Amino acid sequence: GQQLNQSPQSMFIQEGEDVSMNCTSSSIFNTWLWYKQDPGEGPVLLIALYKAGELTSNGRLTAQFGITRKDSFLNISASIPSDVGIYFCAGLLGGSQGNLIFGKGTKLSVKP
Amino acid sequence: DTAVSQTPKYLVTQMGNDKSIKCEQNLGHDTMYWYKQDSKKFLKIMFSYNNKELIINETVPNRFSPKSPDKAHLNLHINSLELGDSAVYFCASSPGTYSYNEQFFGPGTRLTVL
After folding, report:
1. Of B41, B98, B106, which is closest to A42 when you measure between CB atoms?
2. Which residues of B touch A100 (CB under 8 A)?
């Protein structure tokens, strides 16, 4: 089946540092979504992207839809302890009215 | 007031048993989903219903049968449970089919099969 390669798998950073993670695929996507999942909870949508090249911010979070439509990245600036969690990218394939495909997640740990 | 609720939160059962997980949403959404998250946190869609009609049915063993009595409820029944069914199951809802940008997830049900 289709796959999204999300990296890094995990990150250990100091509070205040910036974070960057990305998702790549060999397939073309027409929508990219970024989620955060806290322990014991369901994923919560952070940012949705719909057009190649689109750059969207949500507070300290910024995500971009890659020009080739095969990748996306998420940046978190000035990380704080409550940023801890697992971040997932998800993509909707071009030409598809079907399923959302998820990356395997980036686990973020923030040291105060 | 919880938007998407699931019961039970935890479910521990023996191999071979049949069990159900219930999901309810009070958002007035037309579409509901079931996802499975395995032990490595990989999340995959299983089913999607729009107004009680099955829309998405991924390659899931037919031991899994979703039931939607009305558009606010989507229950998941699992027959003859196997060890590999152990996972966290998330219910979700959205206003319309594929409106993933407005999708809300429930808190999950952790199923452990012994």
Report:
1. B106
2. 45, 100
Contact status of A52 with chain B (Cβ, < 8 Å): no
Could you read off the pLDDT of B53-105 as tens digits, one per residue? 888 777 789 999 999 999 999 999 999 999 999 999 999 999 988 788 889 99
B22-58 residues labelled b (16+ CB within 10 A) or e (exposed): bbbbeeebbbbbbbbbeeeeebbbbbbbbeeeebbeb
Strand ranges for chain B from DSSP E:
4-7, 10-13, 19-25, 31-37, 43-50, 53-57, 64-70, 73-78, 87-94, 104-105, 109-113
B-chain residues near A92 (CB < 8 A)? 98, 100
